[in-house]
């Protein structure tokens, strides 16, 4: 019984503290906000890449993304229609728009929101292979174009980046093999 209790406690701690080491940086230069989140995860680069580029599955594991579908590929870019909801405390905002994605296999990808309330915001996923792999996401947005109230924007953006990095890392670490090949 004592061993079972230790095992349960160990599993609970592993699940709840696995991403406590998520490093966050928020920087504001004038009206340009940059938020970066990163963490180490014990997966290989191939698995990380499969999760990052399985766009249709994002609603299954990323909180706040309700729909994500590839609408076309053109000139080395993928265009993905995304809809969802940003929720932070009492703040709620539904959104929808098109993302233009450029993949740089296996190092990462760049995202630009080309329509919707986040138009002109940019994101970048980076994958640094190694043991452990380093996964990072950087969001850059002009606060004058942000749909968030300017005094709240840094906190909302930081929370969103943290959620995204941790959600993707959790999905990469799943042992069940659900990730598309």
Structure description:
It is built from 4 helices and 8 strands, in the order αββααββββββα. With 181 residues, the chain is of the alpha+beta class. The protein has one domain (21-173): 2-Layer Sandwich (Alpha-D-Glucose-1,6-Bisphosphate, Chain A, domain 4). The protein has an 8-stranded antiparallel sheet with strand order 1-2-8-7-6-5-4-3. Helix 2 (45-52) crosses helix 4 (153-173). The radius of gyration is 17 Å and the shape is globular.
Radius of gyration: 17 Å
Tell me about the largest β-sheet: 8 strands, antiparallel
Mean pLDDT: 88
Head-to-tail CA distance between termini: 41 Å
CATH architecture: 2-Layer Sandwich
> In the CATH scheme, what's the topology name?
Alpha-D-Glucose-1,6-Bisphosphate, Chain A, domain 4
What amount of the residues lies in strands? Answer: 35-45%
Widest β-sheet, arrangement of strands = 1-2-8-7-6-5-4-3
Shape: globular
Number of helices: 4
Number of DSSP-assigned strands: 8
Structural class: alpha+beta
Order of helices and strands: HEEHHEEEEEEH
Q: Level of helix content?
A: 25-40%
- Uncertain spans, ≥5 residues at pLDDT below 50? 3-20
Task: Walk me through the topology.
Layout: H1 2-17, E1 23-29, E2 32-41, H2 45-52, H3 58-61, E3 65-74, E4 77-88, E5 91-104, E6 108-113, E7 122-128, E8 133-142, H4 153-173
Antiparallel strand pairs: 1-2, 2-8, 3-4, 4-5, 5-6, 6-7, 7-8
């Amino acid at each position: 019984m004592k061993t079972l209790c230790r095992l349960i406690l160990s599993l609970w701690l592993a699940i709840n503290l696995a991403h406590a080491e998520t490093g966050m940086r928020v920087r504001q230069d004038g009206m340009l906000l940059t938020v970066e989140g990163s963490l180490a995860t014990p997966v290989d680069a191939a698995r990380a890449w499969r999760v990052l580029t399985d766009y249709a599955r994002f609603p299954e594991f990323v909180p706040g993304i309700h729909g994500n579908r590839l609408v076309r590929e053109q000139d080395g870019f993928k265009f993905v229609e995304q809809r969802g909801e940003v929720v932070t405390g009492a703040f709620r905002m539904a959104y929808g728009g098109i993302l233009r994605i450029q993949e740089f296999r296996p190092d990462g990808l760049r995202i630009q929101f080309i329509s919707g309330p986040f138009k002109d915001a940019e994101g970048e996923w980076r994958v640094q292979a190694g043991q452990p792999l380093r996964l990072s996401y950087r969001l850059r947005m002009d606060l004058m174009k942000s749909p968030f109230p300017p005094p709240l924007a840094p906190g909302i953006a930081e929370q969103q980046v943290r959620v995204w990095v941790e959600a993707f890392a959790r999905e990469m670490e799943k042992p069940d093999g659900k990730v598309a090949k």
